[in-house]
Amino acid sequence: MSGPAIQVERLVFAYPDGRQALFGVDFTVERGERVALLGPNGAGKTTLVLHLNGILGSVAGGTGSGRIQIGGTGLHREHLTEIRRKVGLVFQDPDDQLFMPTVRDDVAFGPANLGLRGSELDDRVHEALVQVGMQDQADLAPHHLSFGQRRRVAVATVLAMRPEVLVLDEPSSNLDPAARRELADILAGLDVTLLMITHDLPYALQLCERSLLMDGGRIVADGKTRDLLGDADLMAAHRLELPYGFDPLSVPGPERS
Amino acid sequence: MLRFGRNKNQNERVHVPDGFFDAPTSVATGLIAAGAVGFSLQRANRELRETGPALAGLTAAFVFAVQMVNFPVGAGTSGHLLGGALAAALVGPWTAVLVMSTVLLVQGLLFADGGLTALGTNITLMGLITVLVGYFLTRALLKVLPRRVGSVVPAATVGALVSVPVAALAFTGLYSIGGAVDIPIGKLATAMVGWHVLVGIGEAVITAAVLSAVVATRPDLVYAARHLQQDLVLVDADGNTSTVSPDRPIAAKPAGRSLGVGIAVTLLVAGGLSLFASAHPDGLEFVGAKLGFEGAAKNSAVAGSPLADYGVHGIGNAQVSGALAGIIGVLVTIVVGLAIAKLASLRANKAS
Amino acid sequence: MSGDGLLVAVDSPVHRVPAQVKLVALFVFVLAVVSTPAAIFWAFGLYAVMLVAAVAVAKLPATVVSRRLAVETPFIVFALLLPFVATGPQVDVLGLHLSQSGVLGAWNVLAKGTLGVIAAILLSATTAPRDLLAGLERLRLPATLVAILSFMVRYLSVVSDDLHRMRVARESRGYTGGRVGHLKAVAGGVGALFVRSFERGERVHLAMRSRGYTGRMPLLSVSGATRAQWFEGLAISLAAVTIAVAARVVSL
């Protein structure tokens, strides 16, 4: 298979109530890249990522146009199952993502839909839980987990499908500092293409070399995270603010040089 | 709500316990409930496939949670919601029957609230009658009220108001058939209906307030009023303006055959049941006979002892005929309900 | 309300009985109780003894059982009224005119209702909700219904927490409850709760479809119960059926 991990061209979308959210989005993410998707509230970030596996958009019967390719496969109705396996989407609220009675059932949900059964399914579930360090909580009900644990299980539910692209919607929101760091360690150790919506700019800098900045339903900047965060005018123009005392030029990032 | 402090009136939810009605009544209402749930599953199938079972499950969780909330109704009393009419207005009658049945099943199995043998009775009274009465009254009123989404509030208010005393009346009816003790049915009916008119007022006020809140924020979520929604104005990428219909709920299935099959099955089940009930006043005895306990159980139906059957003197054959009459009454109620359903859906089809 | 129901999470022989066996056992037991003539007092004594034994074997604290018995209260009131309103021959007790059938009827409702509630507590306190769902699935409850039940159980605590947060927000702004003028605030809050729950349902559906859901939920149950498990689990219920039959014979 060939082609970039994610390729989005001229993506336009309006919600059924007439509110338009995307006004022509273009970007490409290569395999193995880690990219942060930044932008103020209402910029269209979540709407965009819901397009990546065909939940929204013309493929789902919505109002919109444009072209999306995942790993060289065009997003069409007949490829929907394959695309949804390739693109793992972690929702912002883990309670939306964990809907089965126990952690184990939940992590098994995706692979079972892919047709896995028996010991093959069990192995896949165990593997995904080990990746996020939750293998000892497999038989617990989601409401018995802490918020940070639920977020990690939510990541595992998606990892169990062995996605090529992992898309996370605000992974660090509502986490305490320790849980936030633990999740960063887990994400940094994964060998997948990563696209991450976040308002947590230090998190973006820590994990993602590259960032996309979105506002008003368009990509308004695309570059190295450090450069974007260091551009005070760009940041101010799009309502982004660094935490007090944080200097993006003086902390280590994920750059491999 | 156990975790954050119990409300002192939390246990006001009145579920019929085991042993309140005799076995044939329990079995009969159990079959009616099963038939109704099966029928609703069939009717709600398309919606559930479109929106997913999660939506119905969350609506059930909502109804469960809201039944725990005490509303100040006035004069120092507080009421709580049954929610049948409200759920019907919000998610439609068939999904609402499933939602209410789910709530009752969870209350019975997870919280030991409401007897297991009385589950059918509870579903019939609180899951079926309140929903159907509430919904079809709402739809009927919507036909005469101004054609806008807001009209659903007064319509469902009346639906909720009426649904509660009707359920109480049905309870009385069941009691007259299968109550363990002879009490003057007229008195019981008067007391039950009188009290439940008050409960119904509470139900109506709450339903009205909840619905008006939903209509104000997400009018598209009100199932009963979806056909009354205004068209939307959409501006596309190039700035062109167009008018589109809002997302329609899935068009009602052609009512013809499936409804006919449903009624036929319901009648068959219930009809066979009433026959069975009249021939075998005590259903368990029949099961016992099937299992090989004939010798033990025989003759008890005609036993002369004053304490035969439920130890109540003088019911005997009157009970048998009463059971038959009552089951026919319940059947008629259901058939009338289904007929109204058919009429309503035919009209809805014509209108759309 | 917690999503665990009444579960008392200890290990006991009763906890280990497969859920589908317990469901059938409960149903058979309660049916046997309900069909026992009210006047055969010893039968109810035996039922009670068996239930108490089962509660002890299940290591359930007495407080759990007694607290839950409170759900019966409205019917106790109803039962206590029966002797005064029922028709038929009267008896005088301590100067009160009571209906003979009413007294027996009150006993009937109280005894059967109480036994039924205790039996139901035994089920819900020894069975995790997930196992209960798997048991219902094995007993051939329609898959759609199992799915709705499963989502309801999962989101009970989430929705209740939402409700609780809204109440705290309301009360922290001075609402105390009880006044008619505030009905609108409470009901408006409940309306908002419905919108929230409904929108969550939509998001959950999206999350399901993202992971390949096409209309069939995966099965919860893996293996069935063995013959020995059925026999063990149904022991009390079968004894109850025997007692019920015996009681009928005696009352002839």
Please give the largest β-sheet of chain B.
2 strands, antiparallel
Number of strands of chain B: 4
Radius of gyration of chain B equals: 22 Å
Strands across the major sheet of chain B, in which order? 1-2
Shape call of chain C: globular
Structural class call of chain B reads: mainly alpha
**Share in helix of chain C:** 55-70%
Fraction in beta strands of chain C:
under 5%
**H/E element string of chain C?**
HHHHHEEHHHHH
Whole-number radius of gyration of chain C? 23 Å
Question: Number of helical runs of chain C?
Answer: 10
- The CATH class assignment of chain B is Mainly Alpha
Detailed description of the structure:
The complex is a heterotrimer of chains A (257), B (352) and C (252). Chain A is of the alpha/beta class and 257 residues long. Chain A has helices spanning 45-52, 80-86, 94-97, 103-113, 118-131, 147-159, 177-188, 201-207, 225-230, 232-237; strands at residues 6-14, 20-29, 34-38, 63-70, 73-74, 87-90, 165-169, 193-197, 210-215, 218-224. Chain A has a domain at 6-93 and 164-237: 3-Layer(aba) Sandwich (Rossmann fold), CATH 3.40.50.300. Chain B is 65% helix and 4% strand. In chain B, the strands form two sheets. In chain B, strands 1-2 form a two-stranded antiparallel sheet. In chain B, strands 3-4 form a two-stranded antiparallel ribbon. The longest helix of chain B is centred in the C-terminal third of the chain and has 36 residues, at 316-351. Chain B is globular and about 55 Å long. Mean pLDDT of chain B is 68; it is low at 1-12, 245-264 and 271-331. Chain C has 252 residues and is mainly alpha-helical. Chain C has two domains: 13-134 and 225-251, no CATH class; 141-210. Helix content of chain C is 70%, strand content 3%. Chain C has a two-stranded antiparallel sheet. Chains B and C meet through helix 1, helix 2, strand 1, helix 4 and helix 7 of B and helix 2, helix 5, helix 6, helix 8 and helix 9 of C.
